[in-house]
Amino acid sequence: MPLLEYKYKHKIEAGVDEAGRGCLAGPVVAAAVILPKGYKNALLNDSKQLSEKKRLLLKEQIEKEALSFSVAFVDEQKIDEINILNASFLAMSKAVKTLSAPPEFLLIDGNRFKTDLNIDFSCEIKGDARFLSIAAASILAKTYRDAYMQKIHQEFQVYGWDKNKGYPTKAHRAAIQEVGPCKYHRKSFALLPKQLNLF
Fold first, then answer.
1. DSSP label at 42?
2. CA 85, CA 79: separation in Å to the nearest integer?
3. What share of the chain is helix, strand, coil (3-state, %, to 5)?
4. So what's the pLDDT on residue 49?
């Protein structure tokens, strides 16, 4: 089924999504995207359904063709301070605030959102597989976060972030058990299963 262009035809809508919520390390990254009316892109889909090569190609196209886009990071210290759900909301709000053109309505991926933005919004479950603008935001959030994890992988290669991007894979958890966590790990998360926990 083709992705929907909008929810309200006569409003300037921004799609908003985040990446990295379930990771053990690194930031949560959100993106907000306003696409032009009548936008078409046969490749565009939920970032989780696409190969890395396709995501990178789409990132270039979205950045070139969007009316406005913005990406925001909330780091692991802030995640530990306010919890991952609030950090996700904060990242999404920051992304919307830094759009060059203010949207009139937000399409938020997921089932919950809390913000100090004075903009109407609707939460869309599996929105990244239903709306073009949310799918575009999911691509940007994922590619920017992946690039960041690739960069910090150079500093701590033992954790294999070039492959797992901070998600709780077996290899990632084995490395935490062996050498302990580093400054990029989220200390408020269960980094190891309970019987092996470090804290």
1. T
2. 8
3. 40, 20, 40
4. 82
pLDDT, residue 199, reads: 47
- 93: its two tokens: 């709000």
Tell which CATH architecture fits domain 13-192.
2-Layer Sandwich (3.30)
Sign of CA dihedral 161, 163, 165, 167: negative
* Predicted TM-score of the model (pTM): 0.94
Given a cut of 50, the residues of the chain with pLDDT beneath it are 199
Cα 177 to Cα 54, 180, 191, 199: the distances in Å are 34, 6, 9, 12
Query: What confidence score (pLDDT) does residue 194 get?
Result: 65
- Give 24's DSSP letter: S
Domain boundaries, the chain: 13-192
pLDDT single digits (tens) 73-131: 999 999 999 999 999 999 999 999 999 989 999 999 999 999 999 999 999 999 999 99
How crowded is residue 119: how many other Cβ atoms within 10 Å of its Cβ?
A: 14
196 is written with which tokens? 């092996």
Residue 107: DSSP 8-state: E
Q: Which residues contact 184 (CB under 8 A, 6 or more apart)?
A: 25, 26, 76, 152, 156, 166
Q: Inter-axis angle of helices 52-65 and 132-153, to 10 degrees?
A: 120
